[in-house]
Amino acid sequence: MIITCQQCGQKNRIPNTPQMRGHYKCGACKATLNFNSLIERAFIIVNKGIAMNAHGKFQEAILYFQQALEIFRVVDKNAEVGRTLVNLGESYFRLSQWREALDCFQKAINLLRKLNDRVDEDIVLHNMGAAYHRLGEFQKAIKFYFRSLELKRGVGDHKGEGRTLNAIGLTYADIGEVDKAMNYYSQALQKSQSAGDRINKGTIHQNIAALRHHLGQREEALSHHHKALKIAQETEDRVGEGITLNNIAMTYCETGNWNEAIDYFEQALQITRSLGMKADEGTALMNLGMCYEYVGKPQEALNYYLQALQIAREVGDQEGEAKTLANIAVRYSRLGQWQKALNYDQKSLEILRKLGVKPMEAQVLNNIGTTYGHLGQNNEALSYHQKALYIAREVQAQPLEASALSGIATAYNSLRQFENAINYYEKAIDIKRDVGDREGECHALNALGITLQNAGRHQEAIDLHRQALNIARKIGSPKEEGHALNSLGHIYYQLNQWDDAISTYQQALKILEKAGHLEEKGRILDGMARVYTYLERWQEACDYFDLACEEFEHLRSELVSDDTRTSFFSTAENTFQNYIYLLMYLYQRTPKNWLLLKAFHICERGRARSLLFLLGEKLADIWRNVDPALIAQKRGLLAELTQIQNRLIQPMLSEKERSRLLSQRDEFDLQLRQLEAQIRFTNPSYATLTQPEPFTLQEVQEQVLDEETVLMEYALGIEASYLWVVTKHEFEVYFLPPKDEIEHKVRELRAAILDTIVCKYPYGYELYCMLVQPAEKLLKHKRLIIIPDGILYYLPFELLLTEPQKEMAKLNYTILPYLVRRHAIAYAPSATLLSTLKQNIHHASLLRSNQQKFIAFADPLFTNESERIIF
Known about the structure:
By secondary structure, the protein is mainly alpha-helical. It is built from 37 helices and seven strands. A hairpin with a 5-residue loop joins strand 3 (709-715) and strand 4 (721-726). Helix 29 (628-648) packs antiparallel against helix 30 (655-682). It starts with a strand and ends in a 23-residue tail after the last helix. Residues 17-22, 556-566, 615-621, 842-849 and 865-871 have low confidence and may be disordered.
């Protein structure tokens, strides 16, 4: 410890143990050193630490508290040592470093007891209970909570007593002692009520809601519904019977039991029809449409919606009409047909505004905002969510308010206005907690965590994902649990905490595989591959990239959920790109041809899969030659798989039920594979279009190219870009500039083409030198097949200049040395698909049977003497 003498300015080193009780002498002038200034400095340092804690900068706070602690120990201020240890422990606690926190708390409590500081001792005991709770050492947690409770009762702290009783109840709930948990929750409610502690009262109600959900509240509701149904049937109350059947069906919907829900809705439909209750019939039809939507039968769903719409219009049920229009909009949203969804939502909105049905108007406004978000029109999305928020607050509909707040936060996040997004997510979370929506809270916490991560606030993001993780485990939601773990793994990856990243990813993988939630699996495998890449464990990185690519290829696009479809495809594309970069990096380290060949094959795999995900089975109307019975059978199996997938992600699913569903899924998946093999056998074109096997480089040379054709396949990357040039007998790979540099030049060239005043067209030569000239020796005036990537899809290669132009002001565009003067140029999205289209050219006749729009481009005419062809 260094202290400066106020008499002579000499810096004196003081031992870190108290000696002479403050009577240290200056080594130079022998004046007594002033320890009061040192104590004042320590208090200033403590206050800085407290400020750092308040701003979430816990690591900085720890450093300040450690400095202050050292000073207080030197000057023998035991009371301040104890209080500083409490502060230090709380900082470790906020960082989830439970053991370090406990160590500080234990040292603090020994000092505080000697000083008879009951208030701070109580705080420490409660915090120790909370730390042991986080560690899963529940009995120790209970012991410390009870010691804290005893102190609070001794001093009459009713507010604090309520909070500790709540913590005890929560601990008992976590260990499954339901009766004790409910008992302590009840006591906590009484104490919080008498103390006027509304905040803790809300927390207790949330915990009780979670416990009741854990106890199977929905099954209890079903039991009461069935009792009501029995009474209605015994008294021949057909109206009441129909209503009860509908309620039972809705309860089954909430638990994801769609087949049971369909059965009860159909019974209710029969009763409403027999009684001529048209409006109720329309409601039943609409609900049936919703169920069929969730079991993966969109056409059946649409049929029911249209029937419901017709009835609503017949009976003048405008609200029913608006609801049905909104449901049809949801249906089109799930298909990614955003404009159709907007059209139906706008029709619904118009009716609702006329009727003044505010809650549903807010819901539709939220839906429109979400659709604009999918379209990338984030300012429009923001506007609609804000309108929904205003109405939700006006009618005091908290769930709708929370949805609007989340929508606003999502829009701000997409606009990269992270602080605004964080603010609105926090408001949404507060409401979800108030209404006891634990699953919604969990989802919002994960969303907020991702936003904080995007904003670079990693520790806060970790804290939120851990909160989401705890909730997901309590409510039994493997989907949210896996999502939280995956997000945590990604943060650890960004922070270079490799061991934590691998461990967390492995936990996520285990949870999601057990739950049967396969969408997230590819993302996790990609994350692990990137971790091993940074660790330079090349073989493991390649192995995980292989697994990730296989996962993205094998997961059926029909089973990807609607809200994650875009991000799923984006992650898949990034995985293939990252793998290519790794293989090419390894090639630079150890030039081996097999690395180049594999990188080319991975590039083809990624492109073929991305395009087929987007186009699906629209290519060439291939279903026309397939047996209709086989088509129906395939759709039925996909519907079964969709329903099972929806059931597997439901909270509170028993292990027995989960095991049964996983077994069913494997059985249906096997049946589907066998059916597809049968379809491939009877209709080979089906296989080539829907399940193509990506070509190797040798297959491209043998099946795609002739002696006069060269294939040029580009892959743009952040660190470097690549060009594969393949002829009938040769191939070369060229390393090109990074993606950003190429994008900049392409944008300049496009701007020059469009700008008639500022002529910078010679950029065409720079791009030629960058993208084509390296491979000039293999081109030899042959026909080029260009497979672009990224922004290169927007580059007209024909207009690149093969020679530099000196006098820009005197350019004659009719005689410039365009690349097209040397080579005939064609484009393709991938070599594999090019071959596929060639093999299936007979499908062109099928396409001609439909009226299709066509656009053609030809050589421009520069002079009046040019020969014209009249069509």
